[in-house]
């Protein structure tokens, strides 16, 4: 099934590459288990494109951040492969006029979920991976110790288990039949609710332990397609000087407040921050809470309607109760 | 004229930061002073041009660093000197308020209120109530962890 998805991707890109200056997709990385972002600029590169549940990166950040994709050549567009979550990031970027829809050729991929590769590596004890095959719901990995049959379902990333929008919300072409969402809007915030069920002191203790591990490497910020300030990020500027280089808990707390509050009402829960965190801090959980608040309070879900204005960038005088 | 609401005697040293908009609440606090309404002394006032100027981080940073309470106050909605600043502000502040307790910071340590320049008495009420609430909550449990420590050596952790 996945092989044919890759074949369809190749056919699609072959048919459209004449109109595109670059196509953003995924390709094989340093071993068969790790995929890496791939920029296809010429027809020879098309064969390197891959789509399977190991394609974990959200590519939309490359449209707005540097190093990223070159602006399209005259009369051409940029092609980009998006899963459901990525398409919501695209919508958010279009809403804020950071990219324009006309310059994009969106190849939508309905997604059944991607693998949490770190957990897979930790729990399965794989080493020296030789080959990876995907058959239906099974990941067959051949490594130094022989073949392993790993059920995909067991190693899905947390963001995929709570996914409500597996199908791209905007696209020019759809590679596959739409899939049924895994969760409903109510179930999506189960992780937030289980933390909320604890007492205030327990939550403070939880975050103190979690955030104390933070290295302030800014990987979460760099991977986020909507954190677009880059070298103007107030976590690093000296003027205004919000944070110092000191390594202590409050600075880490404040850094994560900055990251989360700047995404309030904008975050599309693509889960990239959590995926890239080298210290395995559940960073996305913070944004999930903010999204739950904007949903309940302002009745807004980010990244669905390109015409909508994110709720904290606007106001409503008639609003009562707040 | 209503005389003072008895303000709580300062038992512990409680620090409250108030962000007051120049056009309404700062004036309201001034009115309260001119009218000699008794007010608690825990509040440190920062004058701001408009509540729309308040970045939610203005509230978050002090609370993370151990300040015991933060109060934001400005013009009543639809009365903003800049027409809409407080309409933006109330969305941001309400989101922040709901968010704080998720991170383990008591949301009662933060509040926002709308007080106009003529409402000296209302100001007295707001600030007395808030101060009393913070006294009941006691010192911020994050205090102490937040005071920047001198770095002893290149590899020493500051906390």
Give structural notes.
Chain A has 322 residues and is of the alpha/beta class. Chain A has helices spanning 2-16, 84-95, 117-124, 158-161, 190-196, 200-212, 219-223, 249-261, 272-276, 283-298, and strands at 20-28, 35-40, 49-50, 77-82, 104-108, 131-135, 138-143, 146-151, 173-174. Chain A is built from ten helices and nine strands. In chain A, strand 7 and strand 8 form a beta hairpin. In chain A, 40% of the residues are buried. The mean pLDDT of chain A is 93. With 159 residues, chain B is of the alpha/beta class. Chain B has one domain (16-137): Lumazine/riboflavin synthase (Rossmann fold, 3-Layer(aba) Sandwich), CATH 3.40.50. Chain B has a four-stranded parallel β-sheet, sandwiched between helices. The longest helix of chain B has 18 residues, at 120-137. The chains are: A alpha/beta (322), B alpha/beta (159). The A-B interface holds A 192, 195-196, 200-201, 203-208, 242, 244, 246-250, 253-254, 257-258, 260-261, 264-265, 286, 289-290, 293-294, 297-298, 311-312, 314-317, 319, 322 and B 56-57, 60-61, 64-66, 77-78, 84, 87-88, 90-92, 94-96, 98-99, 101-106, 141-142, 145-146, 148-149, 151, 157-159.
């Amino acid at each position: 099934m996945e092989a044919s998805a890759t074949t369809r991707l190749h056919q699609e890109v072959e048919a459209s590459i004449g109109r595109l200056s670059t196509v953003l997709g995924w390709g094989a990385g340093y071993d068969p288990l790790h995929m890496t972002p791939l920029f296809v600029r010429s027809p020879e590169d098309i064969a390197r494109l891959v789509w399977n549940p190991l394609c974990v990166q959200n590519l939309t950040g490359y449209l707005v951040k540097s190093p990223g994709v070159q602006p399209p050549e005259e009369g051409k567009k940029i092609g980009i492969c998006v899963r459901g979550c990525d398409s919501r990031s695209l919508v958010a970027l279009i809403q804020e006029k950071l990219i324009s829809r006309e310059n994009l050729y969106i190849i939508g991929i309905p997604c059944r979920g991607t693998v949490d590769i770190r957990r897979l590596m930790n729990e399965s004890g794989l080493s020296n991976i030789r080959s990876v095959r995907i058959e239906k719901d099974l990941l067959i990995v051949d490594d130094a110790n022989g073949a392993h049959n790993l059920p995909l379902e067991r190693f899905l990333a947390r963001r995929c288990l709570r996914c409500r929008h597996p199908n791209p919300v905007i696209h020019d072409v759809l590679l596959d039949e739409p899939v049924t969402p895994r969760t409903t809007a109510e179930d999506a915030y189960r992780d937030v609710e289980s933390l909320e069920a604890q007492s205030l002191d327990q939550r403070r203790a939880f975050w103190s332990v979690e955030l104390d591990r933070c290295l302030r490497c800014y990987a979460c910020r760099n991977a986020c397609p909507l954190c677009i300030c880059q070298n103007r990020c107030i976590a690093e500027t000296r003027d205004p000087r919000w944070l110092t280089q000191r390594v202590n808990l409050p600075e880490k707390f404040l850094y994560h407040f900055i990251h989360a509050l700047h995404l309030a009402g904008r975050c599309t829960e693509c889960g990239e921050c959590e995926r890239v965190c080298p210290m395995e801090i559940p960073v996305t959980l913070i944004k999930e809470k903010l999204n739950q608040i904007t949903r309940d309070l302002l009745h807004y879900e980010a990244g669905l309607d390109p015409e909508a204005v994110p709720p904290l960038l606007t106001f409503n005088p008639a609003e009562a109760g707040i | 004229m209503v005389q003072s609401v008895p303000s709580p005697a300062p038992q512990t040293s409680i620090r409250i930061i108030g962000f007051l908009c120049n056009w309404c609440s700062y004036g309201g606090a001034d009115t309260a002073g001119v009218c000699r309404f008794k007010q608690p002394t825990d509040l440190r006032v920062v004058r701001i041009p408009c509540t729309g100027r308040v970045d939610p981080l203005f509230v978050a940073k002090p609370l993370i660093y151990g300040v015991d309470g933060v109060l934001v106050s400005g013009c009543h909605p639809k009365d903003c000197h800049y027409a809409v600043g407080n309409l933006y502000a109330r969305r941001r502040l309400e989101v922040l308020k709901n968010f704080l307790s998720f991170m383990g910071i008591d949301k009662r340590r933060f509040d926002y209120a709308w007080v106009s320049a003529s409402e000296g008495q209302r100001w007295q009420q707001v600030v007395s109530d808030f101060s009393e609430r913070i006294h009941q909550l006691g010192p911020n449990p994050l205090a102490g962890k937040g005071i920047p420590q001198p770095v002893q050596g290149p590899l020493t952790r500051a906390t």
